[in-house]
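Reopening this ticket.

The earlier resolution said the output was attached, but the attachment link was broken on my side. Pasting everything inline this time so it's all in one place.
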Amino acid sequence: MDNSPRFEGIPELIYGTAFKFDNTASLVEIAIKSGFRALDTAANRPQYRESQVGEGIAAAIASGVVKRHELYIQTKFSPLKPNRDPANYSYDTTAPIPAQVAQSVSSSLTSLGVSYIDCLVLHSLYSDIQDTLTAWRAMEALVPATVSSLGLSNVDVDSLRLVYEAARVKPRSVQNRFTADTAPRPEAELPEGLPYPRVKYDRDVRAYCGEKGVTYAPWGVLWGNPEVMEGEGGRVLDEMARGVGVSKQVVIYGCMRGLGGCGVSILCGTTKEERMREVVMGLGRLERWIQESEECGKVWRGCVDYIKSLVDSE
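Inline output:
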């Protein structure tokens, strides 16, 4: 077991590396230098380039801007999907599930150039819950030697409950798509194959996370929620952003963290350096503004309550 210091807790802001392709290494380095201290990746292609994430980490550490234990590195074990090319997976897809998990994590450690992973996430569920539990038990066997914590992604509340109740090592985080859509909308021109929550804005999953003390990590917050980002919701966000002197995106991230009910860790996957710095610095500026006076706190609470009314009201 690696006995070196490790990142404590779960960060409130994570840089997402999906779909960065051949720009992954440079963007990861820039993100770290811009203030991000948490990274989300996965071993499967074509969405991710895990080895390039490792290159970006190595470059940032070599520059002296950060040390390994100051980073929260999260990767995933991705079960084989029907009609997917086995060559896109980092393990022998014909091997038993426990061997697949072990091979995937070994590959991730090598690709990332690290001796341990802060959080290993089960990327998706198997069609058979027993296979899901088999994968989870294989993941548990890696804690704490090479993995610090475990998480789930793209999970419904019933499956989350089954895994949680059966687990020896409880899931520490859930990474799900956050949207009002519960079924595909062809007119929205979104990528095919996206998972959809059973309940608008994943209310049931978020409630269970709150009950069990599991951190909820929403993805697709900006591009997947026109009902919140535009119209009256957009006006409220814009007004708040002008008052604080930050971007509208920073305000919605702040609102997500302030919804209550469960801890929230925001996934941000921007490819623009100025936006990276803006998000990191803007969230800090927002926190300071809220604390400036009782009136600022009251105004902020009003903004959060309005967004909460859009997200949590039937």
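Reporter confirms the inline version is readable. Strands lie at 13-16, 38-40, 72-77, 117-122, 147-153, 173-177, 215-219, 266-268. The two ends are 48 Å apart (CA to CA).
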